[in-house]
Amino acid sequence: MSTCRSSTGSTTAGISSLLGFLTRPHAQGEIRVHAAGKKLLASYEEMSHQTEGEQRRLARAQAFTELVAGGLAGIASLACYGVLWWLLADGVLPLAVGGTAVLAIRASTARLTSLVQQVNRLYEELLFLTDTEDAIALATENAIPTTGAPLPDPVDEIRVDHVSYTYPGTDTPALRNVTVRVARGQVTALVGANGSGKTTLTKLLSGLLLPTDGHVWWQGQEGTHRVDVREAARADVFGQVGLLAQDFPRWEMTAAANVAIGAGDRPRDMGRVKSAARAAGIHQLIENLQHGWNSIVNKGYERGVQLSGGQWQKLGTARSLYRNAPFLLVDEPTSALDPHAEIAAFESLWSLAGEGRAVVLVTHRLAATAHADRIYVLDQGRVIEEGTHEQLMARPDGIYQGMFTAQAAQYGAPAIPVQPGHAPAPNPVTGGPH
Ligand code: ADP
Question: Is residue 200 within 6 Å of ligand 1 at its C-beta?
């Protein structure tokens, strides 16, 4: 029964998700140009047929059950009234008592029907209740603890110490025996192919995931005091971290709210919202909108405006800057930016490190990683190379050297590996020296 309910439930969920794609503007390009609309409509029809078929099957089963129950109830009533008639006809039962018995039979039948209906409803509700209880138990099991050891004050660095991580429900570790150091005042770059484990590592650094093996240490100055992330008060860990994920949420709210939500636990400070937006290069655009900071950054609403991918990325950057956290973790922060905006974004990240913050940068733009204080190259969940740009470029067969050279070649720049003590290679984005 519950399997049937869950399969019908997932089909219904699938139908509403398809309807979302068919009716909302974000997929309209592919729906028209790639003819995805036809495919989605066909799937919609197929799912609707499935749901209707399931509903017909359930209706037939219900009708059959009601037929059997009605038949049995009819036979029971017939037997009951037959006995009553026989008792009256035989003179065993006085007529007045017989009349009272008829009334009693009718009343008890009505009560019995109501009882059966109540039991049926109780059973249905119980199924939902069991699901809710299971969900609550799972949520309690995985709840983020509200207490824990205080972090050192100030935290000077995060040390990832021989960490492995395997996602629940998978067999292959996403990270294997990774050791990484993220220090304040430095830019730490994570590079590697898609699926090499960079995002997973940033999630471990932010306290969103806990290591399966190994330790993530939050250390005070000169390592005097350190706390394992498993023991730490997680609210304190989150308080130290600012995130800019690749798929950061685009809240259907005002421009001001979209920045201020970066510090959702603090009252909104419009002065700081504006200076974060200025640093992210989006301030002027928002100020020039008809409704300024009160514009809803989503078309389809009154005061709604449509932002481009790059403008959204700047708004996301403003959000993480507004958070003003000592450890800033940014995952591909410039993928949608134009070249000038990209250079400005990287400069702003470097200035944050100059102010004493730790910047962890996940990017495929190796022109930017060339400026990093430390680069970690990941491959299939392992750190396979680490060092500065110059050190990594000095490895003739190194992975980093190969990636940098390939990217530089796209710009026609002579990708001469840098030897220690020599001038660095040209910057593939700016064309100038690093
Ligand atoms: P990268 O950021 O380098 O592209 P990720 O850290 O996102 O790589 O992914 C590393 C590996 O972990 C990949 O094989 C990916 O399929 C797997 N992975 C990522 N997220 C999840 C998840 N939520 N559940 C299961 N596996 C995941």
Answer: yes
Measured in whole angstroms, the distance separating CA 109 from the mean position of its chain's CA atoms is: 54
CA 200 to ligand 1 center in whole angstroms: 6
Distance of CA 37 to the CA centre of its chain: 26
Domain segments of the chain: what residues? Answer: 2-141, 157-409
Helices 2-23 and 36-89 cross at an angle (nearest 10°) of 140
Atom of ligand 1 minimally distant from the CA of 201: 6
CB 174 less than 6 A from any atom of ligand 1: yes
Establish whether residue 300 lines the binding site of ligand 1, counting it when its CB lies within 6 angstroms of any ligand atom: no
Global pTM reads 0.75
Enter the CATH code of domain 157-409.
3.40.50.300
Please identify, by atom number, the ligand 1 atom nearest to the C-alpha of residue 192. Answer: 3
Q: Ligand 1: distance of its center to the CA of 167 in Å?
A: 8
What's the average pLDDT block by block, 10 residues per block, for the chain (434 residues)? Answer: 51 76 76 79 89 94 92 90 90 87 88 90 90 90 84 93 95 96 94 94 93 95 84 91 87 93 89 93 93 90 88 91 92 78 80 88 87 94 96 92 89 51 37 36
